[in-house]
Structures are given as C-alpha cells and as structure tokens.
Automatic annotation (TrEMBL):
One of its GO terms (molecular function) is oxidoreductase activity. It comes from Lentzea sokolovensis. InterPro entries: NAD(P)-bd_dom_sf, Sc_DH/Rdtase_CS, SDR_fam. Keywords: Oxidoreductase. Belongs to the short-chain dehydrogenases/reductases (SDR) family. Coiled coil: none annotated. This is SDR family oxidoreductase. Its EC number is 1.-.-.-. PROSITE patterns: ADH_SHORT.
Length: 260
C-alpha cells in the first residue's frame, strides 16, 4: 500500500460533497490538507472537524479566478510544504434546454467545470514536474464518458476526461500520475448548491426531486473518498464509484465499433 503520510493535498470543492469525502480519507492517512471552496461556512466546519486529525488550511476560492488560484497555491505550499496531491474537484450541475442556451450559460458552465480544472493544473503541475513527483485527480463524471441530454454538463465533463487522459500520457515521464474520477450518483447536495450559487443554470424545479432521488441512490461521500484513494493506489486511469456505468459504457463502445 502506498504511504502518503506527511504529504500535502490541495482539494478544490473540499468543504462539501465528494471533496470533503476525499479530504476525510486523506486525513486519516496522515495527509495535510489545503481545502478550497466558495462556501466559507462549510470551510469553517470542515476545518473544525478535520483539524482534530491532521493539519488543515482553508481558502475561500472561486476556481475561475486564476490570479487568486496562484496566490492560494503559494500560500498553501508555504503553510504545508510541497503539494504532492492535487484534487481538481470543484464543480456544478448546470442545466439549460437547447432552446435556452446563451453564451453566458456556456461561459459559466465551462468556466467552473473545465477552466477550474485547467487553473488547478496550471497552478500546481509545473511545481510537480520540477520536483518530479505528484498525483493529479480530476473530477469528471460518467456523463463525461457516456453522454446524457444535459448538454452544458456533458460538454464540460467530456472535456475533463479528454484532458485527463492526454495529461496522463504527457506527465508520466516527469514522475506525475493522473486519474480522472467519473462518479455516477453520489449522495451530495450538488443540485441545491448549484441552485444557490448559480441560479441562471440551475435545474428546473420540476426536475429537482427526481435528480435528488437519483443522487441519493448512490454511495455517500466517505465511501467515495475511499474509492478515490483505492483507485490511486492502483494508479487507475479512470476511477468509478459503482457498477451502474457498465451497461452504458458497453452500449457506447459497441456503437462506436459498429461505426468503424
């Protein structure tokens, strides 16, 4: 088993949901934590909880803000030492029907779910390459491998998957590993959080109950945190949170091959 004791991790969206689950799993392995989130109240609660287990620093960060991201990266490394483990996890569930699409909605969806990942990579990857060590985990979705009708979401998540796969090929020679997390349903409040912070791309009210029920059918955040670290132990290119994706992946693969 790989020993990350004494390492430092930077987790975006780290105060809630999957990010918090990852942070908890890391904390119990002796990893110091830099947690970044837009929700300051959740950051305070996460710090209070996790500081009983490991060293924790928290930062109010909108992952779209490149300048602040770089500043926070510097602050985190001054406080905790070199960041060896990067989790580009922050994201939203944007939604708009095809007749409701606007440039502003595209810009918001891609800025948070794709550019936020790119900003994390640019802030930390050069440091990892220089030190010839590091692990990057980018959070995408099963919807980044098998599309669904949510155009804004699927577009960004497919991009994160492609980015991660290509990045993995590029950085292996520099001693850096890359995995992409492709969760199915996970019991989080991401729908409510998206509605609260980005109302312009929130799910329609009549869709919310069904989507919320779907998410609650999946594993909890602590179970997912353990799945992520298990995937990292195996250096898996893709990390999944259940078997629900399998029939959809098989159907898509068969359809692709049939088109050759």
């Amino acid at each position: 088993m790989r020993d990350w004791t004494g390492s430092a991790a930077f987790v975006t969206g780290g105060a809630r949901g999957i990010g918090l689950g990852i942070a908890r799993a890391l904390a119990h392995r002796g990893v110091s934590l830099a947690l970044a989130d837009v929700d300051e109240e959740s950051l305070a609660r996460a710090e209070e909880d996790l500081s009983q287990v490991t060293a924790v620093e928290t930062y109010r960060l909108d992952v779209r803000d490149r300048e602040t991201f770089e500043q926070v990266a510097d602050q985190a490394e001054r406080a905790l030492g070199p960041v060896d483990l990067l989790f580009n996890n922050a994201g939203i569930v944007p939604y708009a029907t095809v007749t409701e699409l606007t440039y502003d909605k595209w810009d918001l969806a891609l800025a948070v779910n794709l550019t936020g990942v790119i900003n994390g990579i640019q802030a930390f990857l050069p440091r990892m390459i220089e030190r010839r060590t590091g692990y990057v985990v980018n959070t995408a979705s099963v919807a980044g491998l098998v599309s669904d009708p949510n155009l804004l979401y699927a577009t960004a998540k497919f991009a994160v998957v492609g980015l991660s796969e290509s990045l993995r090929l590029n950085v292996a020679e520099h001693g850096v590993d890359v995995s992409v997390l492709c969760p199915g349903p996970v019991d989080t409040d991401i729908v409510a959080n998206t509605s609260a912070s980005h109302a312009a791309v929130a799910l329609r009210d009549d869709y919310v109950p069904a989507v919320a029920a779907f998410l609650k059918s999946g594993p909890g955040i602590d179970a997912v945190g353990e799945m992520v670290l298990a995937g990292m132990e195996k250096r898996s290119p893709w990390i999944f949170t259940g078997y629900d994706a399998r029939p959809h992946l098989e159907k898509r693969t068969a359809a692709l091959l049939d088109c050759l």
